[in-house]
Amino acid sequence: MTIEECRKYLPDGWTEIIQQDPLLMEIFEEHEYDLEKEAVPPFLFQALRGGNLERLRPILSLYGQPGLEMLQGLLEIDEISKDTAEVQLPDGQTAYAAYFFARFSTDNRQAAENAARAHIKNINRVFVEEFEEDAPLDENAEIEILSGQAGKDFITEANQNWATEENEATEMEEDLRDWCCYMQHREGCGDIALMSEALYHISCDYLLSHYLQWSMYDTKQENPFRPYFELWKMGLQIYFPGRGRVVLVEY
Question: 0.90 cut: is pTM over it?
Answer without folding.
Answer: yes
